[in-house]
Amino acid sequence: MFRIAAAAVAALSFMTPANAETIVIHAGTLITDAAKAASGPSTITVTDSRITAIDAGLNPAPEGTRLIDLSQHTVMPGLIDAHVHLTGDHDSAFWKGFIDTTEYGVAVGLKNAKLTLDAGVTTVRDLGSEPQTMFAIRRAISEGMHAGPRIIAAGPAISIIGGHGDVSNVRPEIIAATSGYNTCTGPKECSQRVREFSRAGADLIKITATGGVLSQQGRGLEAHFTPEEMTAITGTARSLGLKVAAHAHGARGIEAATRAGVSSIEHGTFIDDAGVRAMKENGTWYVATLMAYRGIEEQLGTGIYTPVVEGKIRETLAFVGKGLGAASRAGVPIAFGTDAGVFAHGRNNEEAAMMVERGGMEPRDVLIAATKGSAELLGVSAETGTLEIGKSADLIAVEGDPVRDIGALERIRFVMAGGREHPVAQ
Ligand SMILES: [Zn+2]
């Protein structure tokens, strides 16, 4: 019982207090809640990793405290990326997965965790990694061994045999050696996978509800699981207190996953009116991952993608941002997620400008999605997403006013995660 409780706490908070010292931060402009108007010059006090006071004006730092001067910048809640793959790198060909060890994956993941924090992203939801790698990384960061964001981790995605998330179009010996642990056929087996991943330490369940662009499977981008399999997954997850995130491109796959009760649709490329309606009715979150398409587009023709993958890429590129526009106009809740790993980690915040330019969203709504919106989807609102007394000191400073110029999120000047100051290159 105690072990379960400890694991749950580790997932949600940075366990080790940053230090016993009190830090006083001077903010030129302060956004405590992205949905509300910003305040002028303000003083934030941080003690033992938590925000202990927020006062108007630039007040002198009491003796024995340390002052951090951000009076030239806008201070706001740390950003939350609801869709990353820390153990993956964008320029790594798919076959490297058959050569690199899972232990090496941990090293890659720690490297990317630091790059993510450099970008002002203080919380991530990792939606697909080798078994155990992300749980080890999550623990190392929460114990203060390594710099990185708070991690909410799914572990491996659950897929149909031959689906996005399984191994396809390679020698049978390789399939036999690397496939099976994350696939299921029929409601019983699908429920079993959910329980196995829960036992392994998953904070949520990720499924590939439709085909995917970057896998070698040649069965397109529409629905993959049967409705009975998806309902078995969501029902079992709910019984364990776990949400389900569904990778979904095809319109019918999006609608079916939504009706089965998933908490979020990832990508949502070809969503139609029926899908938007279903998401609105069910309160399902939309996570657009527009940066994934930019990353893919940038690498087209470099030889990294096989013909089966290139065909699927060309199907999607004309639709980038259309689904986000339709969903946000209809009032579907929007979270901020990028698919970092498909592009270089650290470029996460380019997503924000894309949400404005390609998705037609207002900058303030993007800011809400990237802070309190994603916090709600990830179930970490009590810890982060807004700056409030008692919450974790997850805060960043940007140059400029992100409500007027969303590009300010690409000018990160200061990062603090769980009360720990993280040095960023200027
Ligand atoms: Zn992904």
Brief overview, please?
By secondary structure, the protein is an alpha/beta fold. Helices cover 34% and strands 19% of the residues.
Word description of this protein:
InterPro entries: Amidohydro-rel (IPR006680), Metallo-dep_Hydrolase (IPR051781), OTAase-like (IPR057744). Keywords: Signal. This is Amidohydrolase family protein. The chain contains 13 helices and 15 strands. The chain is an alpha/beta fold. The protein has 2 domains: 2-78 and 385-422, Roll (Urease, subunit C, domain 1); 79-378, Alpha-Beta Barrel (TIM Barrel). It has a 7-stranded mixed sheet with strand order 3-2-1-4-13-14-15, with no helix packed on it. It has a 5-stranded parallel sheet with strand order 8-9-10-11-12. α7 links the parallel β9 (244-248) and β10 (264-267). α5 runs parallel beside α6 (227-239) and α7 (251-260) packs parallel to α8 (273-282). The longest helix has 17 residues, at 102-118. It is globular. Zinc ion is lined by residues 83, 85, 127-128, 339.
